[in-house]
Amino acid sequence: MECLLGLLKVKVVRGVNLAICDPLTQSSDPYVVLRLGQQKVKSSIKYHTINPEWNEELTLSITNMMHPVKIELFDHDTFTKDDSMGDAEFCILDFVEIAKQNLSDVPDGTVMKTIHPEKANCFAKESHITWKDGKVSQDIVLRLRNTDTGELVLHLNWVNIPGVAR
């Protein structure tokens, strides 16, 4: 059994300009699925929108920081298989490595690392891993793949588990 390193709280904030899967209404009924290893969590469905506001927090247990978080967006359909609306993924290695450090002497609001968009990631713009209010956090905008349009806005927070060594 792998050792629990901590919890990754992923706040699914919103989707921006997502694909239209329901042509009659010029909208979609999107929801988000996050996967990490064998874990799978999903958001609620937001009906009749291509710019959904979720503001939902989903939690993943981190036992291996080498695995990427994989994201899929789907359009909910009642009578047929849900349609794919794109996917993305991001690496948590830098985030977890910073979160596992003793940051008690680091000034509040310090940007610990900046991650730039590149071919190897789905970032739509640069993202900062920040130490603020006693927490490591990161705001992310991901460009969706395997679709013509759409971005997903996330906010990450790290939760240390009492009794788990840093």
TrEMBL record:
Q: Where is the protein localized?
A: Cell membrane; Nucleus
Q: Which GO terms describe its biological process?
A: abscisic acid-activated signaling pathway
Q: Name one GO molecular function term.
A: metal ion binding
State if Membrane is listed as a keyword. Answer: yes
Q: Give the source species.
A: Dichanthelium oligosanthes
Keyword terms of this UniProt record:
Abscisic acid signaling pathway, Calcium, Cell membrane, GTPase activation, Lipid-binding, Membrane, Metal-binding, Nucleus
Reading the lineage from the top rank, the first entry is: Eukaryota
* GO cellular component: a single term: plasma membrane
Family, similarity comment: Belongs to the plant CAR protein family.
What is the official name of this protein in its record?
Answer: Protein C2-DOMAIN ABA-RELATED 5
Domain C2: from-to ranges: 1-108
A single Pfam family it belongs to is C2
